[in-house]
Amino acid sequence: MPIYTITTAAGTLDSATKADLAAEVTRIHSDVNHVPSTYVNVVFNELAPDNVYTDAKPTRPLIINGWVRSGHPDEETSRLVTEIAHAATQVTGIPPERVLVVIGNSPARFAIEGGRVLPEPGQEQAWLLEGA
Amino acid sequence: MPIYTITTAAGTLDSATKADLAAEVTRIHSDVNHVPSTYVNVVFNELAPDNVYTDAKPTRPLIINGWVRSGHPDEETSRLVTEIAHAATQVTGIPPERVLVVIGNSPARFAIEGGRVLPEPGQEQAWLLEGA
Amino acid sequence: MPIYTITTAAGTLDSATKADLAAEVTRIHSDVNHVPSTYVNVVFNELAPDNVYTDAKPTRPLIINGWVRSGHPDEETSRLVTEIAHAATQVTGIPPERVLVVIGNSPARFAIEGGRVLPEPGQEQAWLLEGA
Fold first, then answer.
1. Both ends of chain C: CA-CA distance in Å?
2. Complex ipTM value
3. Which of A40, B73, B108, C6 meets the CB 3.0–4.6 Å disulfide criterion with A26?
4. Which of residues 69-88 of C touch A (CB under 8 A)?
5. How many Cβ atoms are within 10 Å of A116's Cβ, its own excluded?
6. Angle, to 10 degrees, between the axis of helix C74-92 and the axis of helix C15-33?
7. Given CA atoms C124, C126, C130, C132 in this order, what sign does their dihedral have?
8. Per-residue pLDDT tens over the stretch A28-44
9. Residue-range domains of chain B with CATH
């Protein structure tokens, strides 16, 4: 259900590092938000170096945007961003100063997967069984 | 007012299919959310195949992210995602298992188009007349 | 903390214009939302011309998506989008009819930068000092 978009200047991450980071984000999300890893999507948006600015100067940040269904406890989502940011530095070697993680949220009813509107947080098991 | 971003691995959709999908998303959004089709934007973000992961493995999903103003009835937004997901499969042939639709929302006052802050849901007619 | 993603059809903006627009967005955000400019990120997502549609037809809009922490006064965020849209037209020459600005929001606790969860709006000074 979740989608993570990781934005970098092209050349910041090599292929193996992207695969490793996708694996870590998937593992953490699945663990913290109680979602099977088969539902976790991670995409990399690699932009031309002159298309990425911080403080109006070209830079090379690692920007991770995620989305979760509204209704997860706030503490869980804070833990999610903290673990993902930490893993991003571990996997990529990019220092915390250049790593941003932002999670957006909207109601489960505003999303669909496998042809079915998503369940509220806490209702995943019934939803998964129903679709099996 | 709305913006739909459709993310795929490059090569998933050909040009004609993209145009058809843009037309269907535009038609459905205009119908369900009572917005003239001239306000509906659809962009395709085509990524390198090794930049798209599900369950930490390279995949070829069709990910549709939309945005609407807060305040539409929840049932309407659920209908919106359901119709868009259904149309996506019809137009592209991609099975529902690989189609995700997620609609984000924020207040109308947080958006501007044609130089004017957007109207609350239900106030579109007055806003459109005022700008004519 | 904020991230602005500016989406265009490739060729809409040249390099100097992109740098100027990044500088203006950075200046305005820093001013309106009381955030040091060093925290403002602007990225450009340039898509193939046949990947950008308005009203189901290929077009060349300037779409600016931002993100702020929930809790800023609504009037401030309306001022933010208004000033950014105005500056976009000034810098790029693209008329207001083709400029869209949409700001999403989620709780400060759903975001991390420099290894630390973001402060609530109004708590920036303490947070910045703590990290210094």
1. 16
2. 0.95
3. A40
4. none
5. 14
6. 160
7. positive
8. 999 998 889 999 999 99
9. 3-131 (3.30.429.10)
